[in-house]
Amino acid sequence: MRITTNSDFAKRPDETLQERPKYFLIYEGEITEPMYFEGIISNRKSLSINQNISIISVLRSIEESSNSHPNFALKMAKEIQKNSELDGMSKEELLKRLKDYLTCEMPIESSKDLLSQAQDYIKDYSNSVIEYEDIPNVIVDIYKDDVFNDLADKINDYIKNQRVLLDFNEYIDTINLIVDRDSKSFKDEQYYNLVKECKENKIDLYVSNPCFEVWLLMHFEQFDTLDFQKLKENKRVGSSLKSRKYSEKKLIEFTGHSKTKLKFKTFINRVNFAIEKEKHYCEDLIGLKDSIGSNIGILLDKLRK
Protein backbone atom coordinates (compact mmCIF):
# COMPACT_ATOMS: atom_id res chain seq x y z
CA MET A 1 0.00 0.00 0.00
CA ARG A 2 1.01 3.61 -0.46
CA ILE A 3 -0.57 6.98 0.07
CA THR A 4 -0.89 9.55 -2.69
CA THR A 5 1.17 12.72 -2.60
CA ASN A 6 -2.09 14.64 -2.54
CA SER A 7 -3.23 13.19 0.77
CA ASP A 8 -3.54 16.07 3.19
CA PHE A 9 -1.81 14.21 6.02
CA ALA A 10 1.41 12.57 4.91
CA LYS A 11 3.37 12.40 8.14
CA ARG A 12 3.05 11.27 11.72
CA PRO A 13 1.53 13.89 14.04
CA ASP A 14 3.69 15.92 16.38
CA GLU A 15 3.32 14.27 19.78
CA THR A 16 2.74 17.69 21.34
CA LEU A 17 -0.34 18.28 19.21
CA GLN A 18 -3.76 16.73 19.45
CA GLU A 19 -4.16 14.04 16.80
CA ARG A 20 -6.74 14.73 14.13
CA PRO A 21 -9.19 11.97 13.17
CA LYS A 22 -8.03 10.26 9.99
CA TYR A 23 -10.28 9.03 7.20
CA PHE A 24 -8.52 6.34 5.16
CA LEU A 25 -10.03 5.96 1.67
CA ILE A 26 -9.34 2.58 0.05
CA TYR A 27 -10.44 1.98 -3.52
CA GLU A 28 -11.16 -1.09 -5.59
CA GLY A 29 -10.32 0.95 -8.69
CA GLU A 30 -6.83 2.27 -9.36
CA ILE A 31 -7.47 5.39 -11.46
CA THR A 32 -10.94 6.94 -11.52
CA GLU A 33 -11.77 6.86 -7.81
CA PRO A 34 -8.38 8.22 -6.63
CA MET A 35 -8.55 10.99 -9.23
CA TYR A 36 -12.00 12.04 -8.07
CA PHE A 37 -11.15 12.01 -4.37
CA GLU A 38 -7.86 13.81 -4.92
CA GLY A 39 -10.06 16.56 -6.35
CA ILE A 40 -12.18 16.42 -3.20
CA ILE A 41 -9.07 16.70 -1.00
CA SER A 42 -7.57 19.56 -3.04
CA ASN A 43 -10.83 21.51 -2.87
CA ARG A 44 -11.86 20.57 0.63
CA LYS A 45 -12.32 24.15 1.82
CA SER A 46 -14.67 25.20 -1.00
CA LEU A 47 -16.58 21.92 -0.57
CA SER A 48 -17.04 22.57 3.16
CA ILE A 49 -15.08 19.46 4.13
CA ASN A 50 -14.31 19.46 7.85
CA GLN A 51 -10.92 21.15 8.29
CA ASN A 52 -10.23 19.23 11.51
CA ILE A 53 -9.94 15.82 9.89
CA SER A 54 -7.21 14.20 7.81
CA ILE A 55 -8.11 12.43 4.56
CA ILE A 56 -5.66 9.77 3.37
CA SER A 57 -6.08 8.39 -0.12
CA VAL A 58 -4.63 4.86 -0.19
CA LEU A 59 -3.41 3.16 -3.36
CA ARG A 60 -2.18 -0.35 -4.01
CA SER A 61 1.55 -0.98 -4.16
CA ILE A 62 3.06 -1.13 -7.64
CA GLU A 63 3.36 -4.92 -7.57
CA GLU A 64 -0.25 -5.22 -6.39
CA SER A 65 -1.69 -2.89 -9.03
CA SER A 66 -3.44 -5.70 -10.93
CA ASN A 67 -5.40 -6.80 -7.86
CA SER A 68 -8.65 -4.90 -8.35
CA HIS A 69 -11.24 -7.17 -6.76
CA PRO A 70 -13.27 -5.79 -3.80
CA ASN A 71 -11.93 -8.61 -1.62
CA PHE A 72 -8.37 -7.36 -2.15
CA ALA A 73 -9.44 -3.86 -1.16
CA LEU A 74 -10.90 -5.39 2.01
CA LYS A 75 -7.56 -7.11 2.64
CA MET A 76 -5.84 -3.72 2.42
CA ALA A 77 -8.31 -2.26 4.91
CA LYS A 78 -7.61 -5.05 7.39
CA GLU A 79 -3.86 -4.57 6.96
CA ILE A 80 -4.13 -0.93 8.04
CA GLN A 81 -5.87 -2.07 11.22
CA LYS A 82 -3.30 -4.82 11.82
CA ASN A 83 -0.22 -2.71 11.05
CA SER A 84 -1.05 -0.32 13.86
CA GLU A 85 -0.22 -3.12 16.29
CA LEU A 86 3.29 -3.75 14.92
CA ASP A 87 6.65 -2.33 16.05
CA GLY A 88 8.41 -2.91 12.77
CA MET A 89 8.12 -3.61 9.06
CA SER A 90 8.58 -7.00 7.43
CA LYS A 91 11.36 -7.39 4.88
CA GLU A 92 8.74 -8.04 2.20
CA GLU A 93 6.84 -4.86 3.07
CA LEU A 94 10.01 -2.76 2.99
CA LEU A 95 10.81 -4.11 -0.47
CA LYS A 96 7.33 -3.12 -1.63
CA ARG A 97 7.89 0.44 -0.38
CA LEU A 98 11.26 0.60 -2.11
CA LYS A 99 9.76 -0.67 -5.37
CA ASP A 100 7.00 1.95 -5.17
CA TYR A 101 9.48 4.77 -4.74
CA LEU A 102 12.07 3.59 -7.26
CA THR A 103 9.49 2.75 -9.94
CA CYS A 104 7.78 6.12 -9.64
CA GLU A 105 10.84 8.34 -9.14
CA MET A 106 13.74 6.76 -11.03
CA PRO A 107 14.47 5.88 -14.70
CA ILE A 108 13.47 2.30 -15.52
CA GLU A 109 16.97 0.85 -15.84
CA SER A 110 18.23 2.61 -12.72
CA SER A 111 15.22 1.49 -10.70
CA LYS A 112 15.81 -2.15 -11.65
CA ASP A 113 19.44 -2.02 -10.55
CA LEU A 114 18.65 -0.18 -7.33
CA LEU A 115 15.85 -2.60 -6.46
CA SER A 116 18.16 -5.53 -7.13
CA GLN A 117 20.64 -4.05 -4.64
CA ALA A 118 17.92 -3.87 -2.04
CA GLN A 119 16.75 -7.42 -2.68
CA ASP A 120 20.28 -8.80 -2.30
CA TYR A 121 20.80 -6.91 0.95
CA ILE A 122 17.45 -7.57 2.57
CA LYS A 123 17.32 -11.30 1.82
CA ASP A 124 20.43 -11.70 4.00
CA TYR A 125 19.11 -9.45 6.76
CA SER A 126 19.13 -11.45 9.99
CA ASN A 127 15.60 -10.67 11.19
CA SER A 128 12.30 -11.13 9.35
CA VAL A 129 11.01 -7.85 10.80
CA ILE A 130 12.98 -4.60 10.70
CA GLU A 131 12.30 -2.28 13.62
CA TYR A 132 11.18 1.18 12.54
CA GLU A 133 14.11 2.90 14.19
CA ASP A 134 16.52 0.67 12.24
CA ILE A 135 15.02 1.28 8.79
CA PRO A 136 17.00 4.51 8.09
CA ASN A 137 20.27 2.68 8.81
CA VAL A 138 19.23 -0.22 6.57
CA ILE A 139 18.49 2.17 3.69
CA VAL A 140 21.83 3.95 4.17
CA ASP A 141 23.66 0.58 4.13
CA ILE A 142 21.91 -0.44 0.91
CA TYR A 143 22.65 2.82 -0.93
CA LYS A 144 25.93 3.98 0.58
CA ASP A 145 27.57 4.41 -2.83
CA ASP A 146 28.57 8.07 -3.27
CA VAL A 147 26.92 8.12 -6.68
CA PHE A 148 23.61 7.99 -4.86
CA ASN A 149 24.62 9.98 -1.78
CA ASP A 150 21.21 11.67 -1.51
CA LEU A 151 19.10 8.66 -2.53
CA ALA A 152 19.03 7.17 0.97
CA ASP A 153 17.75 10.46 2.40
CA LYS A 154 15.02 10.72 -0.24
CA ILE A 155 13.89 7.13 0.32
CA ASN A 156 13.86 7.55 4.08
CA ASP A 157 11.75 10.70 3.71
CA TYR A 158 9.35 8.76 1.49
CA ILE A 159 9.06 5.86 3.93
CA LYS A 160 8.61 8.29 6.84
CA ASN A 161 5.76 9.99 4.99
CA GLN A 162 4.14 6.61 4.35
CA ARG A 163 4.17 5.86 8.08
CA VAL A 164 0.68 7.32 8.37
CA LEU A 165 -0.50 3.92 7.11
CA LEU A 166 0.72 2.52 10.42
CA ASP A 167 -0.97 5.14 12.57
CA PHE A 168 -4.53 3.86 12.57
CA ASN A 169 -6.25 4.77 15.83
CA GLU A 170 -9.31 2.59 16.34
CA TYR A 171 -10.90 5.15 18.67
CA ILE A 172 -10.97 8.14 16.33
CA ASP A 173 -10.03 6.98 12.81
CA THR A 174 -12.24 5.53 10.07
CA ILE A 175 -11.47 3.15 7.24
CA ASN A 176 -13.68 3.67 4.19
CA LEU A 177 -13.84 1.02 1.49
CA ILE A 178 -15.04 2.19 -1.95
CA VAL A 179 -16.02 -0.56 -4.41
CA ASP A 180 -18.13 -1.32 -7.46
CA ARG A 181 -21.08 -3.72 -7.48
CA ASP A 182 -20.17 -5.44 -10.74
CA SER A 183 -22.30 -8.57 -10.77
CA LYS A 184 -20.17 -10.08 -13.54
CA SER A 185 -17.05 -10.29 -11.38
CA PHE A 186 -18.55 -10.03 -7.89
CA LYS A 187 -20.89 -12.88 -7.01
CA ASP A 188 -23.89 -12.44 -4.70
CA GLU A 189 -22.33 -14.53 -1.95
CA GLN A 190 -19.12 -12.51 -2.16
CA TYR A 191 -21.11 -9.30 -1.88
CA TYR A 192 -22.97 -10.43 1.23
CA ASN A 193 -19.71 -11.64 2.80
CA LEU A 194 -18.09 -8.26 2.11
CA VAL A 195 -20.95 -6.39 3.78
CA LYS A 196 -20.77 -8.79 6.75
CA GLU A 197 -16.97 -8.56 7.15
CA CYS A 198 -16.97 -4.78 6.90
CA LYS A 199 -19.58 -4.60 9.66
CA GLU A 200 -17.67 -7.04 11.86
CA ASN A 201 -14.37 -5.18 11.36
CA LYS A 202 -15.86 -1.69 11.71
CA ILE A 203 -15.00 -0.74 8.14
CA ASP A 204 -17.37 1.67 6.40
CA LEU A 205 -18.41 0.34 3.00
CA TYR A 206 -19.39 2.49 0.01
CA VAL A 207 -20.79 0.86 -3.11
CA SER A 208 -21.84 2.07 -6.56
CA ASN A 209 -24.00 -0.22 -8.71
CA PRO A 210 -22.84 -1.20 -11.25
CA CYS A 211 -19.73 1.03 -11.09
CA PHE A 212 -18.26 4.26 -9.75
CA GLU A 213 -19.27 6.07 -12.93
CA VAL A 214 -22.87 5.97 -11.64
CA TRP A 215 -21.85 8.38 -8.88
CA LEU A 216 -20.03 10.58 -11.41
CA LEU A 217 -23.06 10.62 -13.71
CA MET A 218 -25.26 11.69 -10.80
CA HIS A 219 -23.54 15.08 -10.93
CA PHE A 220 -25.58 15.88 -14.05
CA GLU A 221 -29.25 16.59 -14.71
CA GLN A 222 -29.23 14.12 -17.62
CA PHE A 223 -28.78 11.19 -15.24
CA ASP A 224 -32.55 10.69 -15.04
CA THR A 225 -32.74 10.27 -18.83
CA LEU A 226 -30.36 7.31 -18.99
CA ASP A 227 -31.45 3.86 -20.09
CA PHE A 228 -31.22 2.17 -16.68
CA GLN A 229 -31.42 -1.33 -18.10
CA LYS A 230 -28.40 -0.62 -20.28
CA LEU A 231 -26.68 1.08 -17.35
CA LYS A 232 -27.22 -1.93 -15.11
CA GLU A 233 -25.96 -4.35 -17.76
CA ASN A 234 -23.17 -1.89 -18.63
CA LYS A 235 -22.20 -3.67 -21.83
CA ARG A 236 -19.79 -2.27 -24.37
CA VAL A 237 -21.30 0.05 -26.95
CA GLY A 238 -19.91 0.89 -30.39
CA SER A 239 -17.44 -0.67 -32.80
CA SER A 240 -14.90 -3.15 -31.47
CA LEU A 241 -12.01 -0.70 -31.83
CA LYS A 242 -13.74 2.19 -30.07
CA SER A 243 -16.24 0.38 -27.89
CA ARG A 244 -16.73 1.54 -24.33
CA LYS A 245 -19.05 0.42 -21.58
CA TYR A 246 -22.39 2.22 -21.50
CA SER A 247 -21.51 4.11 -18.29
CA GLU A 248 -18.24 5.46 -19.65
CA LYS A 249 -19.81 6.34 -23.00
CA LYS A 250 -22.38 8.46 -21.17
CA LEU A 251 -19.69 9.99 -18.95
CA ILE A 252 -17.85 11.15 -22.08
CA GLU A 253 -21.09 12.59 -23.47
CA PHE A 254 -21.78 14.46 -20.23
CA THR A 255 -18.24 15.70 -19.50
CA GLY A 256 -16.19 15.50 -22.68
CA HIS A 257 -13.56 13.27 -21.10
CA SER A 258 -13.16 9.60 -20.16
CA LYS A 259 -13.00 8.08 -16.69
CA THR A 260 -9.19 7.86 -16.87
CA LYS A 261 -8.83 11.57 -17.61
CA LEU A 262 -11.17 13.16 -15.11
CA LYS A 263 -11.08 16.92 -14.73
CA PHE A 264 -12.41 17.67 -11.28
CA LYS A 265 -13.34 21.21 -12.27
CA THR A 266 -16.19 19.57 -14.20
CA PHE A 267 -17.61 18.18 -10.95
CA ILE A 268 -16.65 20.66 -8.24
CA ASN A 269 -19.76 22.85 -8.57
CA ARG A 270 -22.04 19.84 -8.93
CA VAL A 271 -21.16 17.85 -5.80
CA ASN A 272 -24.15 19.13 -3.81
CA PHE A 273 -26.42 18.29 -6.74
CA ALA A 274 -25.02 14.73 -6.85
CA ILE A 275 -25.53 14.24 -3.11
CA GLU A 276 -29.19 15.23 -3.44
CA LYS A 277 -29.65 13.22 -6.66
CA GLU A 278 -28.29 10.11 -4.98
CA LYS A 279 -31.07 10.25 -2.37
CA HIS A 280 -33.64 9.58 -5.10
CA TYR A 281 -31.97 6.25 -5.88
CA CYS A 282 -30.76 3.33 -3.80
CA GLU A 283 -28.30 4.15 -0.99
CA ASP A 284 -28.86 1.06 1.15
CA LEU A 285 -26.03 -1.50 1.13
CA ILE A 286 -28.32 -4.52 0.86
CA GLY A 287 -30.42 -2.86 -1.84
CA LEU A 288 -27.29 -1.89 -3.79
CA LYS A 289 -26.66 -5.57 -4.47
CA ASP A 290 -29.32 -5.43 -7.18
CA SER A 291 -30.40 -1.79 -7.59
CA ILE A 292 -28.74 1.04 -9.47
CA GLY A 293 -27.46 3.63 -7.05
CA SER A 294 -24.60 4.66 -4.80
CA ASN A 295 -23.88 5.78 -1.25
CA ILE A 296 -20.79 7.89 -1.98
CA GLY A 297 -22.86 10.97 -1.14
CA ILE A 298 -23.21 9.66 2.41
CA LEU A 299 -19.41 9.49 2.66
CA LEU A 300 -19.05 13.11 1.49
CA ASP A 301 -21.66 14.23 4.02
CA LYS A 302 -19.70 12.42 6.70
CA LEU A 303 -16.47 14.19 5.69
CA ARG A 304 -18.30 17.50 6.06
CA LYS A 305 -19.70 16.77 9.52
Defining key terms:
single chain, 305 residues, alpha/beta, six-stranded mixed sheet, two-stranded antiparallel ribbon, 10 strands
Give the % helix.
40-55%
- Main β sheet profile: 6 strands, mixed
Structural class: alpha/beta
| Rg, nearest Å | 21 Å
**SSE order in H/E notation?**
EEHEHEHHEHHEHEHHEEHHEH
Distance between the termini: 28 Å
Number of strands: 10
Number of helices: 12
- The averaged pLDDT comes out at 90
The dominant shape is globular
Q: Percent of residues in beta strands?
A: 5-15%
**Which regions contain 5 or more consecutive residues with pLDDT less than 50?**
10-17
> What is the spatial order of strands in the main beta sheet?
1-3-2-6-7-10
Could you please describe the fold and organization of this structure?
The protein has helices at residues 32-42, 70-83, 91-105, 108-123, 135-142, 151-162, 188-200, 213-217, 228-233, 246-255, 271-278, 296-304; strands at 2-3, 22-27, 54-59, 88-90, 129-131, 174-180, 204-209, 236-237, 244-245, 293-294. A six-stranded mixed beta sheet has the order 1-3-2-6-7-10, sandwiched between helices. It has a two-stranded antiparallel sheet with strand order 4-5. It is 42% helix and 13% strand. It is built from twelve helices and ten strands. It is an alpha/beta fold and 305 residues long.
